[in-house]
Amino acid sequence: MTAAIIVALPTDAAVDYGGGVTDCASCVVRNRAICASLDADELALLGKLGRNHRVKAGHTLLWEGDDAPVVANVLEGVLKLVVAAADGREQIVGVVFPSDFIGRPFGKESPYSVTAMTDAEVCIFNRKSFDDFASAHPDLQHKLLRRTLDELDRARHWMMLLGRKSAEEKVASFLLEMSERLSGQGCGAGTQSGFELPFGRQQIADILGLTIETTSRQLTRMRAEGLLDLPSRREIVIHDRAAMEAIAG
Amino acid sequence: MTAAIIVALPTDAAVDYGGGVTDCASCVVRNRAICASLDADELALLGKLGRNHRVKAGHTLLWEGDDAPVVANVLEGVLKLVVAAADGREQIVGVVFPSDFIGRPFGKESPYSVTAMTDAEVCIFNRKSFDDFASAHPDLQHKLLRRTLDELDRARHWMMLLGRKSAEEKVASFLLEMSERLSGQGCGAGTQSGFELPFGRQQIADILGLTIETTSRQLTRMRAEGLLDLPSRREIVIHDRAAMEAIAG
DNA sequence: ATTTTTCGTTGATCCAGGTCAATGTTCCAG
DNA sequence: CTGGAACATTGACCTGGATCAACGAAAAAT
């Protein structure tokens, strides 16, 4: 379970690993990422520590159990956080979108793998440098704390889903949450009922603690009952949101 | 799902609700709680905001969904964090021990209920006052961030257990984790193999996402196989730790 | 355009763990 | 010490979701 980190570390700046230099001022997630807590001077300082980097779909940025030398902000794309058992069983324990933060600041090995589900772009920091910078910038740390508290709330509600909900309830809950989070991504104001999932059936199963077959059957049944439409592999259109919420519980 | 908060709020200091005044300097968790980040002056200031309070086993300190007006440190006892479904199904999403932090700082309603599993003593703060104090004390906030990151790691590994492990693996993992956390409590240096759980079978089931019957059967079977002993209702003695770890995966 | 590969659906069957029910055990209260 | 309540164990049975297997459909490669 060991792998080379495929990114340029800031300390290796003499060599060009292909990581683009960061220009925070024009960053697409400038106002949504934790960096939003910084003023222009601080931002310039942080910018020197960060390197933009592209990750192809399916590639892994951090490996569970490895010493994690980097943290990052997501600029574009969707990545999954995965905890795996020795025999290959996988549980997706988090899904991160643009402006979300990746990695484990302040010591410790990475408690999970981070893998791109779509082609992605991330702004990477050497962990030690980031830790030092964060320690010196309480506002940044405050943002990070709020984010971590939110993530913890989300994780705990997902524990309820994993431990106590039926397959039907799991799928309904999942579709509603994805509908919300994905519409939060784009510019659309309200929650639209149609959306495109950034991943396939197996990954839905790994999020819900189900098999791919059960996941597929639940979706097919919901379509048969008129709750939703499946125009293509990854598109979902929820017809009866109220009914879906009733099922999700 | 609404209930009166049964504690004295600092702002009502004119009235005695029975909450004891806090003396941080002599606090039993002084060096382990987040307060350890503060110097004597800061501690005195925080002490004015806090009130010690006793909670009887089974009583609930915070209710899921209510506006949560307080946060707290645990001084003594064990409490559970619970997410419940409308039909009564419960999932325990966290267990807190002395020196652990309770509550949801920085806005929002409480995402779960907090209920004492044993008689407990907590040091309570008005949330707003605590938020302000924390915002003004980066070291405290740093401690809180580290704790929250640790909790998040723990929660995510618990998600793997809930979503992907068998009943046998769940019980084995649970016993090992409890063995560690409970020995961390006492003064014993190493991890002893015998310990007393602070809760009953139903609550183990609610932690593992199982029924009480399945939990009981797994324990009985493990005893029959010589893996452990069950000297009394709440006592566990692990005989073959290596085997237990192999099962936990 | 055709082959190959990957991904998704559907069916048949099985079994881990849930459900229902009875019994045993521990712990208080009186 | 006794009766009862709460908790735990055990048994019989059932079912939701896993597993095994085949097939279909879309995308990627040639």
UniProtKB/TrEMBL annotation, chains A, B:
Q: Which GO terms describe its molecular function?
A: DNA binding; DNA-binding transcription factor activity
Q: Which Pfam families match?
A: cNMP_binding, HTH_Crp_2
Where does the source fall among the domains of life? Bacteria
Q: Which GO terms describe its cellular component?
A: cytosol
Q: Where in the numbering of this chain does the Cyclic nucleotide-binding domain appear?
A: 34-151
Q: Which UniProt keywords apply?
A: DNA-binding, Transcription, Transcription regulation
Q: Which residues form the HTH crp-type domain?
A: 165-242
Q: Which residues form the signal peptide?
A: none
**PANTHER family attached to this UniProt entry:** CRP FAMILY TRANSCRIPTIONAL REGULATORY PROTEIN, FUMARATE AND NITRATE REDUCTION REGULATORY PROTEIN
- What this protein is called in its record is CRP/FNR family transcriptional regulator
